[in-house]
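Let's inspect one such protein example.
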Amino acid sequence: MRRPGRLRRSVLTTSALVALSAWASALAAPAKPTAPKGARAFKQYTIEQFMNTTSLRDASFAPDEKTLLLSSDESGIFNAYTLPIAGGKPTAVTRSSTDSTFAVAFFPADGRILFEHDQGGNENTHLYVRELDGSERDLTPGSKLRARFAGFSHDDKAFYVKTNERDPRFFDLYRYETAGYQRKLVYKDEVGYQLGPISDDGNWIAFSKLHTTSDSDIFLYSVASRQMKLISAHKGTADYDPATFDRASKWLYFLTNDGTEFLRVRRLELSSGKTEDVEQAPWDILFTDFSWNGSYRVSGINVDGRTQIKIYDTQTGAPLALPKLPDGEIRRPVIARSEKRMAFFVNGSRAPSDLHVYDFASKRATRLTQSLNKEIDSQHLVDAQVVRFHSFDGLAIPNLLFKPREASPEHKAPALVFVHGGPGGQTRVGYNPLVQYLVNHGYVLLGINNRGSSGYGKSFFVADDRRHGREPLWDCVAAKTYLATLPYVDAERVGIIGGSYGGYMVLAALAFRPEAFALGVDFFGVSNWVRTIKSMPVYWESARKALYAEIGDPGADEKMLREISPLFHVDQIRKPLLVLQGANDPRVIKAESDDIVNGLRKRGVPVEYVVFPDEGHGFTKKKNEIQGDRAVLEFLDKYLKPAPAGAAGAR
């Protein structure tokens, strides 16, 4: 489960398990992916080699813009590092060996650093400061609270933090002084809003309010008058999401799909209430924001599972030409305060995120990191191919297809339908170590975007509402039918794999369509919707109504929820199952996996169970990822690959 976010209003998708969620407009014929030009002889790699790759995220500039702060798992667990822009090796500034720690930002005028971490994956994140002398201080102490950084004030005198310490259901907003950390309550939430942007002059705060996963409103709060005003009154179903204020605090920019299929950018003039369109595309616009001084506006567009970045000169409105980079897309651009340079990551199917810096004057981009393990030749990995098939009712379903190098009509390969988290997530193009590991070892993978996925219009997105365990599942079964049309796939050896909501789809497939798949691999999937919805984290109160509308109310709809919960149909499961679970998962609690495993063991159904005592909803420690991913491959090889000719039990 994750709090609803920019991939539309995902309810249960995992945010930490990159290997499961970090996953042509016309119907495609069976794809024939080709090897990259100049590909060398095929080579297999171990899971240790794949996991010796470094994962990077969260880049931001130091005040002098000579150094970048970022998060890296180089040591085997995420910590905050600094990296000189002129070149050199990263230096760890936090050294946690137990809790994944993520960089937030430098203080605007000195070398102090903000960072955050929870406790063993329990998602009770605290905000910390690393002082100039290297000491660390928890700015949000408390045993059960959850706190997140919400930005620096534009005058650099303060920063904002949201925390649920007063009432665990709701997040209040505090303003902390940068000198001394004294704080003041800015807004007390007793309704269940979701915090949006804060204007540069500090006078306005934008909030969103969920009604359903596909219908929301924007509210504007005046700090001076303490008045909250609805500014997105609309008829019918529409998303309204506040995005940013302009630097003059004159306009509020927001995203909406009111009257259209896709999210577009509009803006509201604060003084008059006038609204107007700013930017639109034949896809969802994921975000838009301004550089520090307002010279540039940056937008991200979800183009068929890929992020397309556009940067506009705000004086002329003209888009800037971005650097042409091979084998990947630009992600998470951050423009320095001077507006002279920009940091960004480049990520592709065969290459994990590497950090680059772009100089606006010289128009040169410099690569600062080499994340892929040097023992791995990217030419031995494979690119994702966007393909579509018609489902049982004729609906076109978009997917990402990964074909092993050695697969051919003469050497047919086993296959997996790979289901993303959600509901409402999306299988997206990008480097995925588990996917590349499995494909490298001979498995065809089809990353499905079943109905209900983000990125393909609001009609497609709402097509799974209160239909879970039925039509979205039938799309996955149709995916198996599609795979059988590919000449290099062994149609008798197709399994299903997924995490979080995708894990639920695995269990649902084995319980409700037991004839369809040869096996299942479930990463922390829901087995009992009644329990999962009742036990959702208390700080999800603002999403409760939307969750009920999407899946069901455990009070009013208990019978329906039991009907679609695999746990109550465990007697129908007869195919082998592997389950992986974090003991501290607050979204899909461990009992969800315990019960399904125990039910299968009692009936003698082959089931294997891997539990990580120091993980939550997603695995962030390399030692655990190595153990888990190795267990997946060994399970697949045991049950999905043919036994050697003449061996006992050969099929």
Remarks:
- The longest helix spans residues 622-639.
- The first strand starts at residue 56 and ends at 61.
- Residues 55-192 form a domain with the Neuraminidase fold (CATH 2.120.10.30).
